Amino acid sequence: MVGVNGYDRIARFYRVMEWAAFGPHLNRSRVAILSDLPAVSRVLVLGDGDGRLLQRLCLEHPDATIVSVDQSPKMLELQRRRVKAIGGEDRAEWIQCDAIDFSPEPGRFDLLVTAYFLDCFTESQLETNLTKWLAGVRDGGCWYVVEFTRPASKLQRVVADPILWMMHAFFRWQTGLPNRSLVDLNPILGRLPIRMVKRQTRFCGMMTSRIYAKMPLTSSP
Ligand SMILES: C[S@@+](CC[C@H](N)C(=O)[O-])C[C@H]1O[C@@H](n2cnc3c(N)ncnc32)[C@H](O)[C@@H]1O
Question: Which positions fall inside the Methyltransferase domain (predicted)?
């Protein structure tokens, strides 16, 4: 599990580092369109980090049960603490493993949540694993995804490119992240059985929050 030690090391400082780099913007992007999600009963969260989004999910969906998968024991500990603080621990299950080894039961969840998680993987890892993770969502269910993105505007790229480069350098150094630059998710997402329902972009076009609906797979004749 490449990166476990790195994420364990930065877990306690994650929030402060995030604030130093992006002020309130990263957290705002995390919850930007959270309230646009429909009511859900079963939620799968991959790589939640220190539990802030998990806590919000518990509050916004008080009847939902949540499975949270993360490879870092320290991040999971912070998640537990935050969820416990709002009395939600009975509704949550924590699984410590490499998400690459995790195959959700097909169609078990109404909602998949990934926030700043996909950028931990290479393009080929995403090609293989996104299909598998998404299979855990029932047809008609949702995927809430928040990620960095390279802005389309050349002017915005002048600001975004050095920031994205520095971020990758930091995570390569601390967690062994193999990527040197942001993987372009759009071609990969375009091959998945999903339809975008809502999108919001912020912070110079660098942060995108999206809701997708999972479509039934059409079988070829
Ligand atoms: C960059 S942090 C993002 C945390 C949080 N979701 C956020 O919005 O900032 C990535 C999180 O995913 C976890 N993670 C990274 N690679 C993973 C993997 N292969 N399997 C499971 N968890 C992983 C890390 O431990 C960490 O908690």
Answer: 43-141
For 23, residues 6+ apart whose C-beta sits below 8 A from its C-beta are: none
For residue 103, is it within any domain?
Answer: yes
Pocket of ligand 1 (CB under 6 A): 3, 7, 30, 47-49, 53, 69-72, 75, 98-100, 115-117, 120
Q: For tokens 């960095």, what's the residue?
A: 148
Read off the tokens for 34.
């959270």
Whether 19 maps to a domain, the answer reads yes
Residue 5 has what pLDDT? 83
Residue closest to 185 by CA, chosen among 135, 118, 98, 136: 118
User: Would you say residue 46 has pLDDT above 70?
Assistant: yes
Contact of 30 with 207, CB cutoff 8 Å: no
Rounded to the nearest integer, the mean pLDDT of the chain is 94
Spacing, Cα 156 to ligand 1 middle (Å): 26
The angle subtended at Cα 35 by Cα 50 and Cα 71, nearest 5°, is: 25
Whole-number pLDDT of residue 178: 84
Range of the domain at 148: 4-213
pLDDT-derived band at 219 (thresholds 50, 70, 90) equals low
Q: Provide the domain count of the chain.
A: 1
Pairing verdict, β 65-70 and 92-96: parallel
